[in-house]
Write the structure tokens for this entry.
Amino acid sequence: MSAEDRVASTTQETRRVRVHRFKRDDGPAHVDEHEVPVGARTTVLEALRWIQLHEDATLALRHSCFHASCGTCGVRVNGRERLACVTPLADVGGGTVTVEPIANLPVLNDLVVDMTSFVERFPEAHAIVRDSEFLPQADVPVDLGAFERFEDCIECGLCLSACPVSATDDSYVGPAALAFAQRMLEEDPGTVDRDALLDWADQDTAAWRCHAAFECTEACPSNVRPAQRIMALRKDLRRRRRDQGRAIPEVGSEDPT
Amino acid sequence: MSERRTEDQTPSGVEEILRVRSAEGPVERKSPGPTAWFDVRRRGTGHFAFSLNRITGLGLVFYLYLHLAVLSQLLGGEAAWNGFLETATTPLFLGLDVLLVFGLLAHGLNGLRVALIGSGFVPNRQKALFYTLMTFGAILLIYSAIHVFTAEG
Amino acid sequence: MQAPAQDPRAPTGEPNRSRTWRWTALTGVALLLLVTIHMVAHHFVVEAVGGLRTYQHVLDYIANPVIFVIESIFLVVITIHAMLGLRSVLFDFGLSDRHKQLVSKGLVGLGVVTVAYGFVLIGVLASRA
Amino acid sequence: MRRSSPHVLIIGGGGTGGALAHDLALRGMQVTLVERGEFTSGTTGRHHGLLHSGARYAVNDKESAVECIEENTLLRHIAPGSFEENDGLFVAITDEDMAYLPAFLAGCEETGIRTQVLQPDEALRLEPMLNPELKVAVRVPDATMDAMRMPLRFFATAKANGAVLLNYVDVTDLERGGGVVTGARVRDVVTGRESTIGADLVVNATGPWSEQVAHMAGVDVPIRPSPGVMLAVRGRLCNMVVNRLHASGDGDIVVPQRALSVVGTSSWVVEDPDDLGVPQDHVQRMIDEGSMLVPAVREAPFRSAWSAARPLIGSKDDADSGRELSRTFKTIDHAVDDGLEGFVTITGGKGTTLRGMAEVCADVVGRKLGVDEPCRTRETVLLPHTAVFAA
């Protein structure tokens, strides 16, 4: 839908929004319900902000950019991973809407998760700028080198939340970190220690723990396609092994003993 | 600077907040583990496939040992074995046989998908592959069920 | 052959998953074939309700050298696959590195016992034919 | 026992507060920063991400223009890897735009902003999606920043240097006694508990909320929350920042950002910076004006439309549009203006000038607290944004 079509639609009604609440001093988590006035293009984030402003100022949530560029407002809407800022209530079916924090990370407060352990999964401080692959017909000025742009991954954690292996096994580094590693290998800015990165990925808590559910790719709001990148990473790992002339080891050497 | 209040007041408020926040206990965290397999709020095909693989896998390991235990009857000679055969051909046990075939097909065919995709074949068509293999499995399951219940000596 | 530099982030004492993943996949694909053979041979070619064999049928069957070899391979492959799968499931419980090692060792032991038991079973039956 | 250094409490976790925390921490002061929500959730994170060359202000607001080009150069140096360094174009579409060109070039010359005049065919070679009707384009050193991650690098570095940064801590009141602000009453949103944070000096760095916080201390600040609407469409329609070559107006910029293009921005004035709304006519204006620069804006799939409140300096009596209010910043020592000790307000400005604002404010803070340390933020390279999450 173009922006103009969005502007044209402005019906007004209300939606029942159920919000996950958790405060440390208030005991276990519970759900609050609110009746929120919505227009045709009211987003989940706007609904949550309305609740903050008009009904409960103690509701805590993360948000920053409001246009799917910062990745802070990731939540689960009716059980599916979404960026609240670009998810119109009209797009998540009719009836009651349930908003929960993303899964597989500690919940600090209401809808706020602690991103520390998400960031710690990444192999190293990572570049956020890369060459732009858009507008290939553009004639880049000599003094610029190449047009560049920000990485697609906005570190929202939705892929980690959607991953069934991460839901089960906390030691798995998860899709975002592996997708990042693959991008660094694919578009090496010349600063990458490739062997160290491949060693990092070649672990039973990394590339080989993925079970090809592809839920990360489904969840990603930024078209990073982490699952495909994990598969590409495995290809890199196999190629390295082949290049190093390693034969498939004996069964006996397989076992961890 | 005589009214500087740093030492007596500053830390109190800040440190109290920091202390409470860094306390281990009251952070809500669904403990990870196999309960996630049964999380019905996760409705994705991929999650279903993963859970199915885990559950059928465990079921098949259980069956493997059940099977080996049952086969020990063979060591007891003809009478022991033929006695077992009578129980094993009751409709209940035949139904369990069909369940076994279901487990083998679900685990085997989804495992084939994971192996094919995980080793670089068909990287972008995982859903189509899943549905194709599951459809194939369903046909085989129906055929097997009919066979198990109708094959007469 | 030069070993790659040790990555400080890599946990120590861990087997390399790329091998276990590979072996799970390889044995899994082999099992597709072996299970099919096993199921068809036992349940779909025998003309009886449920396709089960009588005692004598079983003895004759296992005495066939080709069957004996196939069943032996089946036994080993399915045990490896089952132990690797169990290991993966048990690791889902978020074990410490030490417990992971214990689990791995325990499963090697269980696998050896399972295969040994299977061979005793096959051997005894084949000898009775 | 060594007497500990003075403690400064910064209210507001936007770009200004973060940069100030960084500056004060480098000067060896004890710093606590409180933010009622997530860092950069108020205005900072919502802006379109333009790293101003200053050319936008080169004609009407030369002070801002000079600030911008200085900070533009500095930030690239201290926050490498945080910008899409693709420059920007000022594009003339109408004869009226062309009439603005001489003044624009003169203003840039005067304020030290490097320019390169491009004929339409040259500009279209650079940016094929530009309006083919363009008459001329001027290349300037604009860039795109990640509106959250670039400021977070100041937070990250401040934290590494010992500043205590507390998000989800809401200031409910300011503690006063004998004409001195002595700290703040706060409510920890995480627990719901209330407590008091004492400080030798409290800095109000709450941008468009400055007025509300100043009222807690019983003083007034000449700030007007002036929101603007922005529109993001899918597709990276250009690689360079595309500006309209005319006096500042609505919908006059297209900022590429990741695989999106952000069109900004309108301007009006509100009382409550929390209750903005997204007026439909403003969104329509973004589409209409944005497609004057890059026609594909009209057809591109919608991604988001939102509002962000700027803190513009002016008085209640100024014009309603907010455009005429100054874009530069102001540090107010309330001891001078209102006879209230221990309270400083830093406000105004823009994302590009966050470091410079912090430097000026930190000079004032240092003078008031007797800390004679020079500013070191010009040469201190910032940590990556992820370090803000480090335990």
